[in-house]
Amino acid sequence: MEKAIVVSRCSTTDTKQDVTRQSTDLNNKFSNSYEIVKTIEYYKSGRKNDSELNEILAYAIDNGIQHILFTEVSRIARRVIEILVFVETCTKNKINVIIDNYNMHSLNPDKTENFMTKTMLQIGAAFSEVEIRSTFSRLQSGRAKYIAGGGKLGRKPNSKLSKEKTLEKHKDIIKLLKQGQSVRTIMKLTDKSNGTVQKIKLLLAA
C-alpha cells in the first residue's frame, strides 16, 4: 500500500474544530486506499505558511511519501504562486497532491503530470487569492467607516496587564512549557494562539 500524509490547516482566526474535521474526513476517506503514516495539523495564515510547506515537502521527500492529502486547494496556501510552486515541487519528486473536494490528483496513476488538474489548480488558486483579497478589502472598508464615525481601535488606556497578572492568567501555558511541550502542542491543548504562547515564553525567560 502506498504511503500518504494528511495535511490540515486553518488560520489563527478559524475555529480549532475545523482542523480536526479536515483530518478526520481525510483519514476516514483514504485510509483504505493508502497507508496514512502521518497527520500534520497546524494553525497559520495561508499567506504566511512558506516554512510549514517547506517542512511538509522535506518530510514527504525524506520518507518516501507518495501522496499528500488536502480537503481543498485553499488549505495548501492562499497565494497562487505558493500553491503552484508546492504542487510543482511535488510533481518533480513524483508525489501526488490530492485535493479532495474536487477529486483532483496532480499525478496520473503512472506518475506523469496530470495537466487537467494543473489547469484546474491554477484556476482554483486564483479564485482563492481573489476571495481573501475581497475579504481584506471589506475589513479595511469597515475599519475606515468605524474610525470615521468616531470609533477608536487598539487597547483601551491603562488596559495592559502587568507581567505578574499576565503569567497568572496563563498558568496553563506555563505548566505545559515546563513539561517541555512544543508551541504547537500547547496551542492545541490550551486553545490559545501562537502569539500568546510565544509571549509567555518570553516573559518566563526575562
Unreliable stretches: none
Q: Nearest-angstrom radius of gyration?
A: 20 Å
- Tally of contiguous helical segments: 8
Number of strands: 5
What is the averaged pLDDT score? 85
Secondary-structure element pattern, one letter each: EHEHEHEEHHHHH
Shape: globular
Structure report:
- The structure is a single chain.
- This protein has helices at about 15-30, 50-60, 80-90, 115-150, 165-170, 170-180, 185-190, 195-205; strands spanning about 5-10, 35-45, 65-70, 95-100, 105.
- α3 runs antiparallel to α4 (about 115-150).
- The mean pLDDT is about 85.
- It is globular, with a radius of gyration of 20 Å.
- With about 210 residues, the chain is of the alpha/beta class.
- A hairpin with a 4-residue loop joins β4 and β5 (about 105).
- Helices cover about 55% and strands about 15% of the residues.
- Strands 2-1-3-4-5 form a 5-stranded mixed beta sheet, with helices on both faces.
